[in-house]
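--- STAGE predict ---
source: upstream dedup step, 1 unique chain passed
mode: sequence only
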Amino acid sequence: MTKGNQSKFMATAEQMKNQLGHAICLAKWKQVSFHLPTGLNNSCYHPPLHVIPIEPLKNNPSALHNTEHKKQQRKLMLSGQRPTECQYCWNMEDLGQLSDRHYRSGEPWAAMDFEKIKNSTGDEDAIPSYVEVNFNHACNLACSYCSPQFSSAWSAEVERSGSYPTSKPHNDPGHFTGSRRPIPVREQNPYVDAFWDWWPTLYPELRHFRMTGGEPLMDRNTYRVFDWVLDHPKSDLHLNVTSNFSVEPELFNRYFDYVQRLCNTDIEHFMQYVSLDSGRPIQAQYIRHGLDYQRMAGNVERYLRDIPYRNSLTFIVTMNNLSVTGFREYMEWILQLRKSYSKTYQRVWFDTPVLRQPAWQSLQTLPESYAAKLEDCANWMETQITTDMVGFRDFEVQRLRRDIAWMREGQKQDNTVAKADFYRFFAEHDRRRGTDFLQSFPEMQSWWKECQYWANQT
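--- STAGE serialize ---
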């Protein structure tokens, strides 16, 4: 892909790379992810979550975002220092890759305040234009890499059966107590209260608002936001929801009715995010336990077919070591959907963020043959890059190549503990949940035996 043929999105990231300098990331000011059941936040999904102190919220609900911790990180960036919590992006850049710092900072919702941020002190309270919020940990799935903090299904399982027997007990119910305990929806939540106190001030500045979970379709706050937007339409608002698209039909029908009405009102765009990690149904259902693949796929088709205006759909592929063998089929389905539903504009997208924890499910634990399999897929995808609405985009292929580079970098490490834990976790997963790893992933038999070998050494 030559410079002249670059997509606007990738060209903007390249341009912002030169403007930002060594350390500034506009997401530290303009983006935030709130995890309100546990009172945590981060500026994007790469840095670790940090605690939102309760006391400042009483007089300043914007302290949900403008924590003292985050202000310190902003000051480091403004002084040219790289905060250690952003190591993922620094690693990508040191490998010669464009990082999410470049992509995010180059998007209009962030770039519009570049000069103001560059000339700030770091002490100012910022109003974010891109907000993600998790109101509630209620969820009908117990995805293999998730935890009780983000899934009530996981909470119920570990309360019933205890932790998983990895080298350090995983998802131990004793860990999720005190400040780590998700506040149930039936209890007063000071973080949710502060959010709604801030909402009338925050809403006019929003360009992107995204609700995650848990499962947002199961949360009453989702519909409270929808009602507000219907009553206060905003022509520059991108409204986004992340879902497993596998909830009970009655609940999905209620949600679908709201989305139809929202897409008929004066908002810029409605983006539906769908979490899915493999293109093979049996593997997707194994990774995301409780998923009904056929129900999810039917809801995807219904959404794209029956609301053909002012919306798009993005698949979120949490790239983990169980995603590799079904990745090609996944990409083929996306091309099929693009051909069927992208008539006047691109309506079907995908992103491939890497999973870093738990370590035993990381791409970095896999041998080179799996990296080569992903590289073969990237090479095939590159042959499908087009300027129309059917093929892939250059930045989509570049992101996958970035994941492969990160995967290979980690293969240089000693991953024997992670491999042992992989076997321990999924052997227990099969015992508890009535699943069968080798039936779902027969092509990974040699990998399974290698992990079993390391588990038996300790």
